[in-house]
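User: Continuing from earlier, I have the next pair ready.

Assistant: Great, send them over.

User: Here they are, in order.

Assistant: Folding the first of the pair now:
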Amino acid sequence: MKRIFTKISVLCIVSAAVLTTGCLGDEIRGTEDSNGSQTTESTIPGNSVIDARVFEALNLELPELAAVKAYYESDQYYLAAEALLNYYRTRSLANNNVNLIAPTITAQEQARADWALPVTGGNQDGYRFWVENYLDGDKPYSYQNGTKLDWTARSTAETEERFRLHRLQWMVPQGKAYRTTLDENYVTSWMSVYESWLETFPLPEGDYDFEADPSGQPEEVRTALYAWRPIDVSYRLEDQCDLIYYFMQSSSFTPQLLSSFLANVAEQAEHVMGHYSEDSAALAQESYAVYRAGTIFPEMKRAAEWVKSGSVAMNDGVDISIFDLLNLSYGGLSKVASAYAAGDYRVALQELLNSYRSRTHGLNPNVNINSDAATANEQNWANYAFRENGYRFYVNNYYDAAAGANVPYSYMNADGTGIDWTLCPTGEQEQRYQLHRHQWMIMQGKAYNTTHDERYVENWKEVYGDWLRQNPKPEQGTDVTNSPNWRPLDVAARVIDQCGLLEYYQNSENVTEEWLSTVLKAFDEQVNHIMNNYSTTSNHLITQAQAVTFAGMLFPELKNAETWRTNGPGVLGQQVTAQYFPDGWLKDGDLHYHISSIADFRLALLVAQQCGYESSFPESYLESMRKMTNVVMNMIYPDYTVPNMADTRRATWTQSVLTRNLTQYSQLFPDDQSLLWMATGGAQGTQPTAKAVTFPDGGYYVLRTGWTMQDMMMVLQNTPDGPKEQWHRQSDNNTFELWIKGRNFFPDSGAGSYGGNSSSNSIRSRYAASKAHNTMTLDEKNVSSDGRMLKQESKSTSSYGYEVLVLENPSYEGLTHRRTVFLVDDKFYVILDEGYGSAEGTVNLNFNITEGSDAQVVLDKDGMGFHTAFNDSNNLFVRTVSDQTASFAEKSGFVAYNIVTDTYKEISRKAYRLDVAKRAEDVAVRYVTLLYPTADATAVQPFEAELGEWSQTGASLTVRVDGKSYNLSYTL
């Protein structure tokens, strides 16, 4: 069905009232004789030139046809037809398809118009009538024989071509060509061809099967039957609704032609209405043509019946539920509203699709239609999702090792006939959740954006349609906190990506009215589901509110959009402070989600700005984000890696990802020269100067010598709560990492798993255990978490200076761990660990070391430490002394920089602990550890330390490092 609409113009016949060209005006006024004098002899043609059937078809009782009726009843058919033509030239009925004020034509339409003209001269191969899908090389076939039109020229063509010829689909292009050029050749050619067609192909009288192959019909009607298959008649009839607008102002358009034209319109409308197809697609086209004839030609007696019949038939089986969700008062839906009010639901749906195809780009900050492209990996993952590849759906971090590198798992059902959305190959709950985020779909959208390969759209329709059928929304009131397919966080991820998909696929031929309605209804349902099931306090709520904000900003035509635009920013405006400590740290204490949440806040603000709703956010919103970005800047090592603590998963935060985020922060805060320096790798801005940075609310601390690759940086974690209070935390208070010149000598063990089954839960517990971290334990049991900072200060003597950081955590009942770190003279670190209280047992000091071979990482049992021997001269000498007898125990260490899966394995490393037996009467157990960077650890002189008396109010110690003594102290 043709469904392309141009601008409506209610003034489309602006000059018709003063025109009487090509009609009775010249003929009854007379002509000049050979002497130049006027004659008054009447030359009115007789009734025979007019197709009298037109008067039977017209409703002559209409007041506007009074002149037509008067002439007709006085037996003056020509004058009646003349009055009818003048009426049509002056009526103001708009045609949504036709723009006569600013007519346009495409190059393709112009070619079709010109091909259809006759050709004179040597190559008499004109009348090349465009028939869809049938070409003579790169042009339509010719129907010219000598100088004449020959309708039999393709009499041996295949049946479908002979049927489709009679859609006469080159005529509208000729109408457009005339309106853009005012070249009368297009009119005269059209008239001669149309009149020839009327004469050659009259509607056969009798009861025939108009759908059948005419070659099996009686010979006397065989030729005509090719022209009267109902589906072809409907295309012809639909175009005639436009042709009269294009041609009727021409001086060549005569009353005679008008009478034949309108009689043919009526004849065709009745024919189609009497032979509606049982095929739904054909019925939609046929009924639409009948409906349109009734609306464009309301002067016909049967116009109301055409409208009613066409409306009922064309709306039969049409799902109009989408209109319940649309705000038809929204300005961008005026054509939708008009068609819906007229009862033309198919056209209303088509206008809805047209409105989406004409939507403005650039409002969605996640989409750049001019440059977005899939990366090589994304392209592969987009293709893996095809049925022929086993529905291998990309789920972040989960790959089928048996199928190859980075190959997603297959979700093909056991029968090989479809998708099994219940499959979870690893058994991990996180894989189950993330499957329902549909992460591969946005990759397919990017792939389509550059390739325009319709397979991606077809796969989206197939897979998403299947998902909608197999995963209905739970009833309101159902607890969806852990729902695998309707958990609000995963729904939010789907919604955000759907916003992008509808833009990438905006002009795809496979996005139909029905599919758009399906997607929008599902979209509305999912956004409301999020809003009705918001998480309470976790970072999930931030992503959920971002999705609601996106929906409200980017889909203003939906009734619920106004509520979403208020609700989403309202929640974000609250959470930008509620989920963050005053120092800027996310309360769940995980850098991964800290950075991700900033992105959510930023994108929500951007989409509001670009859609004109920035005022939806409080004035304090940006300043809260400034503190969050300051956290990120300070937590990044100079080589653009990040600590592997909690659920951060260092491998996921590459330099390019971090730089992209820093660049976005710098754009938000152009006055921050330190951010600009970090974002540009030092090319612009000003290098930060801070060496000791504390986030006492969030429980993270940084002691560094500088910000370059030649510097050192220690990150410590001592948070106010643990995994019982914040799921992403671990039992790791007072742990640390130490980065020196591009090597992390004490990387945190990581997370290992998100859990979900007994096996993965065991992995997660193992990684979260206190003994897997660089901290103090009692009998290797997990610590409690209520960390706080007691002091941070800078001190100096005449010969050296040092930074002091004092942290404390009540790790166990009866044992508090106080960790004091001294950064001495920007050369080395000394850690004083003190476990005090009435507890008894074995106090362990745990160290988990960087990866390396036996030759590269050398444990020293007698020296109570280790050293490294890397050949790049970037090494570390570590020794510990205690005020009590300590023993050295080697352990099996491990580390994972991502989730452990079939394709990503944990890495073995060396680890050890130092044990001191503590009795209840022992006030404290104390360790002093030296962390000394050196080119050659074997050349470092022995480490010595002398501890002063234990005191809860301070500490003093003297260390001898590589032959030099340093007195270190603090007082609370």
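And the other member of the pair:
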Amino acid sequence: MSLKTRLMLMILGLPLLLLTLLVGTALTLEDHQRHATLRDQLTQEVERLAPSLSDALARENSPILSRLVDSLLALPHVQAVSLRDGRGTPLLERGMIHDLPASTAPGTIRLREDGRRWLLQAPLTDDAKETVWLELVIDTTPLLMTRYRQLASSGLVLMLAGLLLFLAAYLTTRRLCQPLEEANRCLDRLALGRVPERLTIPPAQELAPLARRINELADHIETARQERQAQIEQATNKLQRSMETIEVQNIELDLAHRRALEANRVKSEFLANMSHEIRTPLNGIVGFCRLLGRSQLEPRQREWLDQMQRACDNLLMLVNDVLDFSKLEAGRVELETLPLDMVALVDEVLGLQAPLSQQKGLQLLGLVYDDVPANLQGDPMRIRQVLTNLVNNAIKFTDQGEVIVRVMLEEAEAGRMVLQVSVSDTGMGLSEEARRRLFQAFQQADISHHREFGGTGLGLAICRQLVEQMGGEIDVKSVPGQGSTFFFMLPLWGTAASERAPELVLRGELIAIDEPHSPTRRALKHLMTRWGARVTTQANAWLEEQPVALVVAGICHEDLDEASLARWQRRLDKLNCPALLLVNASPLDLPPLPLPHGGEVLGKPISRSALADALVRQLHVTPRALPTAAQRQPISLPARLLVVDDTASNRLLLGELLAGPKLTLTQAASGEEALALAQTREFDMVLMDIRMAGMDGMEASRALRRLGGVWHRVPIIAVTAHLQGEQQRRLRENGLDDVLIKPLQPQRLAHLLEKHLGIVLPTRPTEDEPSTQDAPQAQDPELPVVDLELGTRLAGGREPLARQLLETLADSLPGSEAAIRDAVAHNDEVVLLDALHALNGACRYCGTPRLGLLAETLETRLRSRGFSAVVAWLPDLYTAMGELCDWQAAQPSSTTKATARAASSESDR
């Protein structure tokens, strides 16, 4: 309610309400007074005239009776007068008489009020039988009219008073509220940020200070607004200058960012180039260290050579770590999706790390749970890299105890499996602070670990980035002094199966297991029970009179001393069945324990496939067929192979390595020729050289796949000397199924034939290799022009084939040199790369260390650093090519029957 309304109510409403109540009360009291006066007047007159009337009735004096009745009728407001006897018969009536009720209270005067009509009854005699009733009918309408007149007069007076009060209230509220409204409007303008007009000071003492304060407030706000506007203008100028400075800094930052990106690109290219440049001579050093290790060396020289080999391996590992980290940092690592088997992958990793664990006497065990599907798809190379790093770290930081790898199925969805892979050890453990920084680059758990154990601190950072790129996450749980458990979630593509198919099926043979390491004992028991054997693990159960078919016993690293081995020999002599001894030692350190009833001595950790093969040999059971063989399409023998290579020596070597009754070879010297042959004939496998003149290997593979029909499923194997992760992905995208790295290894070639065609090549007896002791030692520190022993090994142990390959290479050198010189003269980098690649591929199959190293170095430098990086090396290449031609010219005409030296005549000069 507003102030104006409250003032109006107080000035107008309250007094008017009081006046109304006062007038109403006065009128009501006056009306009651008039009725009481009339009632008293009539009662007194009747009481006064009643004796006279009684006497007149008794005398039956009608005139006096009439005169008295008329005097009663003359009273105010009396309308009628009647006399009635006790039976109600009227004796005398004056005025307007209506039906009157009979008297019910004899001897008393009674006044009945019925609205505006009153009835006054009074007895005139004492005898009840002779009682005469005097009845007066009174009309009170004049009293009501008098009341109405008074009400009207009072209303006029109240209206006049209300008007006067309204006038007074209006003048009062106008005097008070108008200054307040002006102040309110002024405050509203101030609230809107406008400058109001100054208020007029009202005469009222109560409102004058308010008006002055509002005027002062308006002045203060205007002053503050002006000051604020000045500050805003000043701040705007400063901000504009700051924005100009920030813009300049942004431009500088953008330029610096671009320079940083360019520097990072240059760094990545430098690391990639340097990795190739470093790994090429390192591979040469490693190779020749191995060759040197085959010669006669003094113990001290042998120790130096071992140190050199370890240093090369460590340097190669560091180079690979730095290269992988730079690729991950630049986001250039691309994952592949290939079939993988976690059992084989874990066994492979543990087999590679076994020498270090055997040296420290640690128990190394891999457990792949049965619910892990066999058919999975992922990037096996990256998973192997992560697992190798974790297992290597666990062995490195564990002095005694065990290292266990566990693989279990964590989550299975449609087409997607999530595996949990954990590596637990009983090593030194990690503190909370060390765990927080463990997966950061160039960080190790303790600063002393770098000096004690070596390493760059990049391994776990690479593992973390690889796992995250594969869609998983890695973490560690550790208790200082009790060991650590590294685990990571690994999403893979695959279909869930109830259980992995067993590797072999036994017939319920009783096998006794005597293994001191409890996790290994439980794993062996579960595995052999699953294969169908009856297993007992009771102590000395295999020495009791029981029909045991096979004893599987584990020998710890501590039991390899002479006394322990003698005790084991005595126990073995009491056996009446074959024994399978699992020794925690390297193959060279396995104890020569005679087994009376047959058996084998194997090293730990033993893979599942090796254990199954050993059981097959000892128990004479039939191994379970491999799943891939059941899924493979049957082929008719002999299998038809197409060899595509533009180098004659390469085709010759492949032809010799694959010669046999199970294979029929067809050779093509170009991609175009291979495509023409494929349009008219069918083949079961293609060996495709990648780098060829004209239609290269990838283009030829795409063209073969486009032929349709059987060519959709014919395996095409890439034969190349240079292979990186990106190149392998490109090969698979272009329709190639597998890769064969030059120089060719007969074992790898046989594995590919068995994998894709199901053909097992017979083991070829190698011809007698020249003895290192009988060969004259080269005194020249440089690489020899020809190493016939190396060539014989590359040719599968056949010296005549090695000599034929050397002759073919030497005959092709003039053409190769002419092609290289022509490409250099025309500055044609593509032609030069083709010529160097062909020369490098031909040298990989021949024992030409000097020319082979130069060809590989020049091809690597041309790929990574461009044309200008190889020009300075070309004279050395021409010299090496000339030396090989001179060596070939100095050989007897019949090279297949001559006796060659390990070093060339040129290297003896």
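Worth noting for the second one:
The mean pLDDT is 78. The longest strand covers residues 402-413.
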